Amino acid sequence: MVTPEPAKRPRASYRRFRYPDPNGCWQLDGFEVGLDDEAGSKRCVLQVEDDHSRFILASHVARSETAEAAITVVSAAIGRHGAPARFLTDNGTAFNLSRQGKITQLERYLRHLGVEPITGRPRKPTTQGKNERLHQTIQQFLDAHRPIRTSQRLTELIDEFDDYYNTQRAHQALDHPDQTPAESYQAKPKALPGPPTHELATPITPRPTPGPITPGIHRRMKGERAAPTTPTPLAGPTEPSAPTAASTSVTPRSTSAPNSPAKPCTSCSITPPSKSSTPTVSSSAQYPTPGTIPTGGFKVLTIHPRTTRPQ
Length: 311
Fold this sequence. Notes:
The protein has 311 residues and is an alpha/beta fold. The protein is built from six helices and seven strands, in the order βββαβαβααααββ.
């Protein structure tokens, strides 16, 4: 027996919600419409819908989904029907970015009027399901009236659809099966917004200010040679003393012929060995301690001859 595992959740698992009063919550969303012109232009249609009555409050045709276009259609709806208590959108950059710790121009505008902006969870379009379903209906209406070559013609069709949808078409999701969205919107008292707020409801974490650039750091490109740098002198309490004559004196190298006899050492009384004999040590030779520095300023190299040291 095979256990079914559907890729999508069943419709029975979705939880339906509906605000009890008109203007309790508005929804805003947009969709793209392609024009039938030679350039293949595209336009964005933004619509504001009441959650309780499904009444279309305002529509606007814009070139793209921007914050200015969103404020234009929202201000038109508020000017006609008053401000709502809440305003629901998705997480678009033009609508609501509170989940990213930012605030948009639309959110500032709504909070200034006392409206609470809310948003659905990312990648959960069912939260704005009423507006999504409205877009499917209006897209079918636009496809039936093509070709649409200009933005003006598109705006005329949108206005025609809004009037038909609000006042002539009964909506099956309302309280009565023969009730239109306009009748449902006027049937009950409207909800009111809260007091205007100029502060954000959720604290926004400011971006860290970039610190100063450390001098001397340079990112080299491929094939670029590093620029020569000047070593920084070490800071000390006093200036170094001048070198003494003993520490700076250098014994010149002998320029005698290779076969000339070597000169004896004056500090350790050791006679250097000749080329054909083994080294000899005089009875009065004094061996310095290995590693010590005599008065001459150079380190003595201890030579251990083959003969035994004197007792």
